[in-house]
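sorry for the late reply, my laptop died twice this morning and i had to redo everyting from scratch. anyway the thing you sent over, i finally got around to it. pasting the sequence first so we're on the same page, its 400 residues, then the predicted structure underneath. double check i copied it right bc i was rushing
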Amino acid sequence: MTVFIPQTLEKVERLCYTSCMSDIERLELLTRQMHLEPAEDCYPNPLPARGKEAIAVKTALMPNGQAIRLLKTLLSSYCEKNCLYCPFRSQRDMPRAAFTPDDFARLFNSLYQSGFVEGIFLSSSVFHGAVKTQDLLLDTAAILRKRYQYLGYLHLKIMPGAEKDQIQQAMLLADRLSVNLEAPHSDALAFLAPQKDYHLDLLNQLRWIQEIRSEKSPIHAWKGSWPSSATQFVVGAADETDLDLLSATENLYHHSKISRVYYSSFNPIEDTPLENLSLSPPIREFRLYQASFLLRDYGFSVEDLVYKESGNLTQEMDPKLAWAEQHLLHQPLEINTAPRSILLRIPGIGPARADGILSLRRTDPIKSFSKLRKMNLIAPKSSPYILIDGKSPALQLRLF
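ok and here's the structure:
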């Protein structure tokens, strides 16, 4: 087995300069190696490319709805850790590459100025310690912001074991930070990544982000506001249940005030200790995202959700629909009197539709399903779970 960890950081830097790969070839390798890590809402079909086709640039949807060309990449894929599932684990035989902060910032700036990319998610494998690796990421971000006056979107990864002062520096430079928990509890992480401490290396970092937000003024932060935060779980590799994952998710939303939880279906990687485990079904990941949004945006608690005896969500049904089947099918809600928090529990009604229904009924009682449909305030799948002026809309729906 080939071990790719250079003995010194200086040797990594020499490899950067003496590699037979060009800068574009190195970047192509590092972006390709990042495809398993979710970040932002990225779509498989990028906007029309303008050259440099080998670099994996994704179309990403920002929280404000803007679509940008996002570069997801590592600063280095040399890693000293041996996480059982990870393609970058130190004992895996694979091609590696790295950039120095100066070289990467110069290359990215040229891509940005040419219009080839509009934002960046910058991560790294850990080499020569989390603190040193985090310093290199911070140096890269600072060069982009200060030397090149980069004004675009920057999502910066926090290394497991990074220090609180480093997190505060990152918060002054980035639009979003992420700390990948990988697992919903310490036992699962001990299986996946035995060299990481769940509380000291990961949960502490998320707690520090929220402490800084709460205790310090963002006046000197990028754009005058603190960055949002996110995390990621690997799904299906450590016998964790959906209840485990969603309990951790709910806790993070409430206590760490994170903006987004990403779920990554386990995909067995050749030449890793978990290469013989089964692929986690994509539908499980999809149901977890649906449930996560119910926790974040719809007022659901983890106890409200419907689980099988295994502790997993049903894969056959949307978790909101599963809740409605149990609670609303035989006790439908009156659309004219239900408060917003209850309207949000009806399948086919989200925040915008709930607000529209509240606005409409302030002037006149709602009398027909067809009127709501014409105004795009309800969906056909809502009909079994509601009453309109005391009557079921099922007949109206068939006539509409």
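Residues 181 and 232 are 6 Å apart (CA to CA).
thats about all i looked at so far, will dig more tmrw
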